[in-house]
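Lecture notes, part 5. Sequence design as translation. It can be helpful to think of inverse folding as translation between two languages: the language of shapes and the language of residues. The source text, in structure tokens, appears below.
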């Protein structure tokens, strides 16, 4: 029996695996770098972080979240766009929810 993508993610979450993003999205992550590619959607996208982190948009050069467990990429983005973020373990109190991350003009080239 082959598992479909949504079933696989349900099993992964139930097993305690960290799931960064909803199924069907393109994402690369390691300890200090996060890359998210938006291919076909303008819908806001919530990124779930494995621990409280400070997040910086590397293209726009600004802080997106501090001490956050997740952050939101807003819907003012263009299709076929890749976002690059620097991740750092948060130094302060943990568990805060980040303010929405917006990047409009930073991607206009």
């Amino acid at each position: 029996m082959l598992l479909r993508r949504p079933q696989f993610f349900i099993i992964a979450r139930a097993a305690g695996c960290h799931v960064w993003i909803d199924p069907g999205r393109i994402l690369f992550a390691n300890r200090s770098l996060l890359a998210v590619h938006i291919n076909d959607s303008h819908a806001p996208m919530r990124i779930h972080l494995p621990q409280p982190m400070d997040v910086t948009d590397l293209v726009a050069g600004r802080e997106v979240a501090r001490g956050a467990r997740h952050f939101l990429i807003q819907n003012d983005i263009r299709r076929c766009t890749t976002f690059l973020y620097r991740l750092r373990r948060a130094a302060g109190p943990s568990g805060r929810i980040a303010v929405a991350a917006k990047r409009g003009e930073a991607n206009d080239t």
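The translated text above is only one of many valid answers, since several sequences can fold into similar shapes. The chain is about 10% helix and 40% strand.
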